[in-house]
Amino acid sequence: MSMNPSASSQEEAPLKYICGIDVGSQSCAGCVYRLDKSLVVKPLAFANAKEGWNVLLDKLTQLDALPKQILIGMEATARYSENLYHALEQRGYRLCLLHPGQTHQFHERQGLRAKTDRLDAITIARVLLSGEARASYIPDEQVATYRELVRLHSQLSEQVARYQNQIHALVVVLFPEFTQVFADPCLPSALSVLKVYPSAQAMAQAEEAALYALLRMHKHAHYGHPTAKKLLSLASTSVSSQRAEAGRSLSLRILCGQLEQTQKYLEELQAELEQLIVNDPAAKSLQQIPEFGTQTVAVLRAELGDVDRFARTDQAIAYAGLDVQIKESGLWKGKAKLSKRGSGPARGRCSIWRLCVAFICRGLPLGLTIRDWWHAVSRKAPP
User: Fold this and answer.
1) Model confidence over 238-283: pLDDT tens digits?
2) Residues 17, 40: Cα–Cα separation, whole Å
3) What is the CATH number of domain 145-273?
4) What is the pTM of this model?
5) What kind of fold does domain 7-130 have according to CATH?
6) Where are the beta strands (DSSP E) in the chain?
7) If 352 and its partner were Cys, which of 48, 272, 320, 336 is the partner (CB 3.0–4.6 Å)?
8) For the chain, which residues make up each domain, given as ranges?
9) What is the per-residue pLDDT across 220-247, written as a single tens digit (0 to 9) for each?
10) What letters, b where the CB count within 10 A reaches 16 and e where it falls short, cover 173-202?
């Protein structure tokens, strides 16, 4: 990051003060330094709310400097810093959002042992004063929307997998013969049956007419009286132990409902992502790559954001933590492995790796800029 503005703006408003803020969920700590590293405002604590922000703003307004002459740094700690960041941005302060890893490494290099909110605020300010600070990427509105939807989609997908595993495990003990009729007990028709008859004992007491009506509730249902009769027959001769049946049956009902509801949310998120991609000009060229599906395009837009900030494609690869880490010392050579220091969601789906494969398949050099590549693939027919 270049913390200094352009030459013309420097003449109009030279930087005078550095402010470091450590942000927490409930409270913050801040301090102010001059450029000569002399402390002006000692570390003070304030609430992470409008009333607390006013305490900090009162200290800043007492300085002999305009808002654009004060550089404020804070860590990108989850969502806690977002509201304060935008409140200061609207007032014209110069801001630098730091990756927590930068301040942590600086803290270790200084040999500091104690760690408190006030000391963290001082560390943030000293990182800015050192000139080593690299500003984190601030996504625009569209990229931020991508990130929210994509990451929630990923979380819900993981929950669906957990629910399915738990349902399979419960069916094995409650009604092990159930899979002779429904190979996958997590199908919509199977879930509707399990919610009403979660165990072999409950199924054995069911009436054929009621079970038949339940099976025919779903669209394109191809189950009929033979299926209902087979379920009743299997239930009557089931080898289920019937142990903890009441508790397990309730658990199965709840899990089936949770799975159905989560799948509905996933469908809603998927539709929203597809609509977002349709209205996103930057996603058009990505959609022309056969290797990239809708979800991969969404992950790339969410995690890479504005591609113009990457000068080379290897920077994008490193951003996802897919760059190779090599350790050597004398005759000893360590095993090369991925650094895994970067965007977890992008690395988890291997989207950047797929991007590299697409590069190689098209004979495009990895040194090509991302922007040029996007323009190139939008004009070049697939091989």
Assistant:
1) 999 989 999 999 999 999 999 999 999 999 999 999 999 999 888 8
2) 9
3) 1.10.287.4070
4) 0.78
5) Nucleotidyltransferase; domain 5 (3.30.420)
6) 17-23, 27-34, 39-47, 70-75, 94-98, 324-325, 328-329, 332-333, 337-338
7) 320
8) 7-130, 145-273, 283-379
9) 667 888 999 999 999 999 999 989 999 9
10) bbbebbeebbeebbeebbbbbbbebbbbbb
